[in-house]
Amino acid sequence: MKSKTVALLAVSVILGMMLSLQYKSNKEMQATTMNMRVEDLYQQLMRVEQEKTDLVKELQELQAEGLTPDATREQDELKFRAGLTAVEGPGVVVTIEDSKQPLKMGENQNLYVVHDEDILKVINELRAAGAEAIALNEQRLIGTSEIRCAGPTVTVNGKMFSTPFQVKAIGDPKLLRSALEFRGGVVDTLKYWGINVSIETSNNLQINPYIGPSKQEFAKAIPGVAK
């Protein structure tokens, strides 16, 4: 009887060690996958920013040349794609707020508040899912829009905002929502730290145009290169 008890105890210990190692391995794989996805989304963001910069330059060139009817239509299309016109359509509204969980002794408070990188991850996921227009706290985002922490606030398009942060995105509501809610994704990560995230779908969102400086001081078009 004693030998059986010892054997059962040994098996229990081994199973416990195996489960612990499997859990640690899964966590490490999730972290690696998340880092790869963030890098991929960052590259996509850079491509979108370059495209919008090119569109603004093309629009300025058309305005300088004078507009024919065809050029007027092209200008309207460029304004739309560059975020310089108001738009409406179906999409999602994402609200992000600081955690309301009480801080435990020894924990870093910064882990429980919304940072610029958290907002950027949400926006990148929406862009990757096909969002055609995005606004943060009613500020239209274009290729040159900055989103960065400034103390307890976040600056976007030169204006400062504090929590809660509201992200509007026009596109396929189902695709946009699923891009944020997939298992192990950005919403899961934020909720792990108690950050409050809510997602609402809408059949008709309105997003204002970008209002602000768009003059290009350093980038110049290369003559003879197709647009």
From TrEMBL:
<protein>
    <recommendedName>
        <fullName>Division initiation protein</fullName>
    </recommendedName>
</protein>
<comment type="similarity">
    <text>Belongs to the UPF0749 family.</text>
</comment>
<feature type="coiled-coil region">
    <location>
        <begin position="31"/>
        <end position="65"/>
    </location>
</feature>
<keyword id="KW-0175">Coiled coil</keyword>
<dbReference type="InterPro" id="IPR010273">
    <property type="entry name" value="DUF881"/>
</dbReference>
<dbReference type="Pfam" id="PF05949">
    <property type="entry name" value="DUF881"/>
</dbReference>
